[in-house]
Known about the structure:
By secondary structure, the protein is an alpha/beta fold. The chain has three domains: 3-47, no CATH class; 57-204, 3-Layer(aba) Sandwich (Alpha-D-Glucose-1,6-Bisphosphate, Chain A, domain 3); 208-254, no CATH class. It is 33% helix and 20% strand. The protein is built from eight helices and eleven strands. It has a six-stranded mixed β-sheet with strand order 4-8-7-5-6-9, with helices on both faces. A three-stranded antiparallel β-sheet has the order 1-2-3. It has a two-stranded parallel sheet with strand order 10-11. Helix 3 (75-92) packs across helix 4 (109-122) and helix 3 packs across helix 6 (181-188).
Amino acid sequence: MSAQSVAGERTCPGERSAISRAICRTRQRNQYPKCLLCPHRSARVLESTAEDPKVSSSVFRTGGVLGRVPDEINEYVIRKVGLASAQFLRAESPSGSRLVVGCDARKNSRGFTRILSEGINSGGVDALNLGLAPPELLGFVLSRDGGAGAAFVGGGTYADNVSGVRLWRADGSPLAGGSGLEKVGMIARRLRTGRSRLPGQMSALDPVRDYVAHIEAFAGGVSPLKVLVDGGCGAGGGLVRSVFEKLPVEVAPVHFEED
């Protein structure tokens, strides 16, 4: 439990109400997911935790979750990553009630984003879906509106048969191996993964107009420029056009179309 309150009571990570030591022990015996994040967890309980053979530890890499589709990354794995991310990030930031999510232009990314959001909801956290959007847009919304963190579905510069999830904390810092991602993996790989009694909700947002206004507020006086811009195979192309059409900037576009 993350903190000890009155005698004989503890507080579970991400929860406001105290629980008794008896409830604490029962949750550990029942493999309550948050126990993995708790300094009072029992080593014996952790050692006996069965792992899910459908979720490979190899997909939890240094910079994020990444693997081949469908052998390593599929709807089942993505859903468990969503649930685990929600539980971990909510435990780190109890006041955060939602994750901001978005994706790249790959054919499977929108579907994976929906599945990821379902997993996030199962973890008791709302999912705010920006749709096709570069990570910078997720960071803008997270910084402006707050939340428990952000998640981006995509495969970066890897081949079409590779996909995954990148995660950020509430303060916008990336969740990486050695700084928390391994704990998300620990939760996701559990054979028995608990669901929240109060599931979160899905909603959608198009923040492009607000983002453009934000850029104009500090870059409106820029001198005329010609800029070579990589649109991230479509993920950022539309956003870049919206931003620079308001500024004295000539854009030389590269990879602006969805691919």
